[in-house]
């Protein structure tokens, strides 16, 4: 084959650019832009009783420090609505300016009307068009929520969910489908109902005077292929900012893999402006795990950078020692724990690349590609660990304190490079 056949090179792979409007979700002077050329944002949701203002504020702080840029809270009762301003006050006292999203179902129109302090303390309202009232009440009660959003200059997310879909709309579309010469499958009709509900609700809000820039949409389902099908079509039919997420991703590995699979495919296609991983926590697991996973999805795709990257080999018969595993975890945990402070103290530190490798096969090469890396001795290798800094071998560590010494080398490198 001629040597110049591939002179143009192999095409680089990267996510497509998004083509949506840009919304502003703000609290005070802190503005989180969503859509357009803004970064894909990470969201999360509390699982505390909102009536417990202090407990809710503490969990919100944990989520925000973990990297959640927007946090949703349940507002389902008068007591919860009354507690929202106190939650906001607690956060402000702690210096946590993350915008809060009120999650409303069934009685949102009444709560936003009767509790104006709640309406003001929230930065965005989540409205489910399937749960705002039936028949003649639907448009009126939906309109009351939109009026509140306009009165207090808040963004709204019109969030359709296939578990609480507008049954009147679904029945209408099913009846129309039955009259077709070649009816669509039932699932296709449900897809159409989800999309129609979201877009028609957004148009209704605009007809009431709301700016298109302050409307976000979501069509949540729990199946990976269903989510991909719905959002591909939704993205073709509108340019509102889109919130992505499986409505019930599940627990542990299942929830993580399902979310990563669905969200990554759509984000690579330029679909999605804000994401949430709706992970069911394992018993005793921190709520912040869903934020970590969402951040990792965006970082893996090259869309965002949140924390320094630690590359570590999986281990094999050459690495019977667990030293490299322990060191990789120690470094990764340390970097993550320091990031809330380092984001302001060491700008750019999130781009740091660290390699902790376990033997001579790939160890030196991977370490050279990282900003700072160490190649630990594998089984039968000499008890020496070369350290590479900015692609050059800087030193060799020996003895019983290799882990502690490398830990200090990483800290010193960060202070010198990013300080």
From TrEMBL:
Residues 310-411 form the IspG C-terminal domain. GO terms for biological process: isopentenyl diphosphate biosynthetic process, methylerythritol 4-phosphate pathway; terpenoid biosynthetic process. Its cofactor is [4Fe-4S] cluster. Keywords: 4Fe-4S, Iron, Iron-sulfur, Isoprene biosynthesis, Metal-binding, Oxidoreductase. Gene3D superfamilies: Dihydropteroate synthase-like, Sulfite Reductase Hemoprotein, domain 1. Belongs to the IspG family. This is 4-hydroxy-3-methylbut-2-en-1-yl diphosphate synthase (flavodoxin).
């Amino acid at each position: 084959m001629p040597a110049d056949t591939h002179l143009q090179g192999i095409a680089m792979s990267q996510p497509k650019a998004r083509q949506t409007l840009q919304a502003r979700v703000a609290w005070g002077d802190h503005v989180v832009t969503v859509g357009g050329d803004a970064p894909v944002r990470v969201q999360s949701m509390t699982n505390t009783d909102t009536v417990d203002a202090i407990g809710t504020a503490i969990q919100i702080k944990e989520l925000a420090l973990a990297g959640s840029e927007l946090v949703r809270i349940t507002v389902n009762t008068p007591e919860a609505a009354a507690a929202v301003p106190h939650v906001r006050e607690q956060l402000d006292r702690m210096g946590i300016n993350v915008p809060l999203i009120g999650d409303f179902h069934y009685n949102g129109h009444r709560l936003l009307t009767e509790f104006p302090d709640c309406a003001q303390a929230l930065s965005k309202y989540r409205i489910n068009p399937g749960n705002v009232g039936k028949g003649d009440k639907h448009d009126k009660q939906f309109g009351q929520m939109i009026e509140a959003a306009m009165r207090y200059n808040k963004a709204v997310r019109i969030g359709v969910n296939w578990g609480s879909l507008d049954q009147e709309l679904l029945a209408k579309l099913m009846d129309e489908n039955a009259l077709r010469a070649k009816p669509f499958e039932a699932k296709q009709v449900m897809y159409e109902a989800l999309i129609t509900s979201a877009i028609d609700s957004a148009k209704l809000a605009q007809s009431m005077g709301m700016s298109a820039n302050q409307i976000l949409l979501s069509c949540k389902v729990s199946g990976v292929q269903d989510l991909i099908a719905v959002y591909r079509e939704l993205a073709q039919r509108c340019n509102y900012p889109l919130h992505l997420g499986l409505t019930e991703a599940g627990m542990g590995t299942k929830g993580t893999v399902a979310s990563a699979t669905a969200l990554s495919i759509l984000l690579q296609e330029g679909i999605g402006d804000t994401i949430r991983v709706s992970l069911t926590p394992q018993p005793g697991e921190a709520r912040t795990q869903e934020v970590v996973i969402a951040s990792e999805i965006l970082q893996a795709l090259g869309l965002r950078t949140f924390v320094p990257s630690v590359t570590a080999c999986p281990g094999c018969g050459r690495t019977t020692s667990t030293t490299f595993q322990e060191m990789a975890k120690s470094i990764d945990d340390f970097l993550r724990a320091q990031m809330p402070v380092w984001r302001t103290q060491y700008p750019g530190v999130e781009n740091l690349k660290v390699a902790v490798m376990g033997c001579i096969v790939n160890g030196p090469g991977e370490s050279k590609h990282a900003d700072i890396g160490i190649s630990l001795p594998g089984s039968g290798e000499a008890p020496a660990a070369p350290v590479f800094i900015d692609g050059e071998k800087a030193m060799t560590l020996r003895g019983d304190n290799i882990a502690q010494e490398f830990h200090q080398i990483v800290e010193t490198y960060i202070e010198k490079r990013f300080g």
